Amino acid sequence: MPASYDVIVVGLGGMGSAAAYHLAARGRRVLGLERFGPAHNLGSSHGGSRIYRQAYFEDSAYVPLLLRAHELWEKLAVDSGREVFIETGGLMIGRESSAAFAGTLDSARRWDLDHEVLTAADIRRRFPTFRPAAEDVGFHERRAGVALPEATVTAHLELAQAHGAELHFAEGVLGWEADGPGRKAWVVTDRGAYTADRLVIAPGAWASKLLPDLGVNVTVERQVMYWFQPESGVGPFSADRHPVYIWEDPDGTRIYGFPALDGAEGGAKVAFFRKGVPSDPDSLDRRIHPDEITAMSEYLRTRIPTLPGSFLKAAACMYANTADEHFVVSQHPDHPRVTVACGFSGHGFKFVPVVGEILADLATEGTTKHSIALFDPRRVRV
Ligand SMILES: Cc1cc2nc3c(=O)[nH]c(=O)nc-3n(C[C@H](O)[C@H](O)[C@H](O)COP(=O)(O)OP(=O)(O)OC[C@H]3O[C@@H](n4cnc5c(N)ncnc54)[C@H](O)[C@@H]3O)c2cc1C
Fold it and tell me: In this protein, which residues make up the domain named FAD dependent oxidoreductase (predicted)?
């Protein structure tokens, strides 16, 4: 007989590691299965930093989840003894009508979130690394900051293990089955087979391979993160002086970036938001091409002119997009024993701790007190 568990979590990246922790902390017998190593750099949860913000232009419905995520980041830091989150403040720059500014402001007003609206002159004075156009405006919120993805995944994995979860790395899941009255769910891997009462499947960019009958088209987009050593040195970019930011141009192009987090040598990270090349997760082009580096340096010259002093490094990552760029977090519509989490569409990491809590709720209670109607897969089923 194969070994049997209460819950098997497939995929121990951002979402799966958080689910494994919340389930194990509730006393469930948990098996976690991950094809790569712990906190690896081959999926969507690497690169040292992720923006966390509270006023949310993507949809105001995310705000209560962000507030709960904030509480859970703080708890995770205490429970794990790791630095998983740094509050730096966050700045949105764009024209008054841009989604980044107008949508964020609308969300802040709806939820009464603490914020300040800045003119272009205010931005230049308070955050002198930025060169906004005279018509640009800024939205600043103090509670925004940086989530540290590798440290977060490591913290969740360590705490899951401390609560008794069994975690297998370098073990790829080949398939699963979860139907039939009274039967348990089965998972077959390249090393063996296991059974459980419930499955949580959080496969990131591999959603279309592990969840073929979910009926949701999750497309993978290659994204590049760039680190530059600022011409000015990292001083003006240090985390106690520099916010995380998203900057939207009138043509819709967005960049986002971070303060310098890795000391004098590490530089500051910046990236284009979306605009990536459609890719297959198993054959992602992980090389960074010289013309990509040139394009980013040139883009920065007129906006954050001291940032592209010298190019340090770059890395590829994957967005896993749904058609409407909202998440899928739900019980599988056709398999009640299975809970799914996918399609985080390039903006999921800031929710990791609360998604872990929701997945544990769904897998143990079949329901959650959090409002997740927006994440129902049936809205985008093809
Ligand atoms: C460049 C970049 C910048 C981003 N910036 C931000 C940001 O600033 N703020 C923000 O909130 N979000 C951001 N995101 C998005 C966020 O990082 C993702 O939404 C989040 O990390 C997705 O987590 P996940 O658990 O779905 O995927 P992953 O962390 O990739 O986890 C999926 C796991 O499943 C495993 N797996 C897949 N198939 C199998 C199998 N068959 N067997 C076993 N294991 C399997 C994979 O190996 C992987 O470990 C960014 C993403 C990228 C790429």
Answer: 6-362
Average pLDDT over residues 244-273: 96
Report whether residue 43 contacts ligand 1, using a CB cutoff of 6 Å: yes
What residue ranges do the domains of the chain occupy? 4-46+150-215+324-379, 90-142+219-321
What is the chain's alpha carbon radius of gyration, rounded to the nearest angstrom?
21
CA diameter of the chain: 70
Q: What is the CATH number of domain 90-142+219-321?
A: 3.30.9.10
Distance CA 144, CA 168 (A): 34
Q: Is 194 in the pocket of ligand 1 (CB under 6 A)?
A: no
pLDDT tens, residue by residue, 60-96: 999 999 999 999 999 999 999 999 999 999 999 999 9
Confidence of residue 309 (pLDDT cuts 50, 70, 90): very high
**Rounded to the nearest whole angstrom, what is the distance from the C-alpha of residue 43 to the centroid of ligand 1?**
5
36 Cβ inside 6 Å of ligand 1: yes
Q: How far apart are CA 64 and CA 323, in angstroms?
A: 23
pLDDT digits (tens, 9 = 90+) for 220-229: 999 999 999 9
